[in-house]
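sry for the spam today, last one i promise. struct tokens for design, 137 residues
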């Protein structure tokens, strides 16, 4: 597989903090209470959820534009990310994307979601690696 890179960015984690090279992201990190941490900071699963929901929403907008469909102003994508021990050892993730497309015919909405799932970089990176479910509400 070859990728024609059009944009590159980086983030650095050290001493319980994470920041991007441009300074737009600068957060304290902490494990969630459910995993034995203090829960008083951002955790990697939250960052993954934010990234996946934003990326999928961008892909949904692109799919709508290509299909000449107007997305409603209140369209949204929520990524729910779970983490836990895998039966094969180590830890793994699961993802559920909940998509709201009010006012769009459900069949057309499902087509947009399926198209977005094929073009989204996060979906392409997770495909066949983690369980991802797509839900239209």
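last one done:
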């Amino acid at each position: 597989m070859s990728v024609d890179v059009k944009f590159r960015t980086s983030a650095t984690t050290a001493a319980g903090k994470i920041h991007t090279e441009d300074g737009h992201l600068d957060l304290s990190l902490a494990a969630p209470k459910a995993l034995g941490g203090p829960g008083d900071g951002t955790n990697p699963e939250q960052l993954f959820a934010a990234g996946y929901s934003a990326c999928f929403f961008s892909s949904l907008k692109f799919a709508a534009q290509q299909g000449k469909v107007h997305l409603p102003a209140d369209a949204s994508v929520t990524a729910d990310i779970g983490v836990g021990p895998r039966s094969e050892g180590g830890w793994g993730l699961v993802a559920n994307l909940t998509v709201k497309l009010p006012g769009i015919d459900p069949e057309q909405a499902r087509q947009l979601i399926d198209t977005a799932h094929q073009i989204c970089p996060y979906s392409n990176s997770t495909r066949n690696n983690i369980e991802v479910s797509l839900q239209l509400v």
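The first helix runs from residue 44 to 66. ok im logging off now
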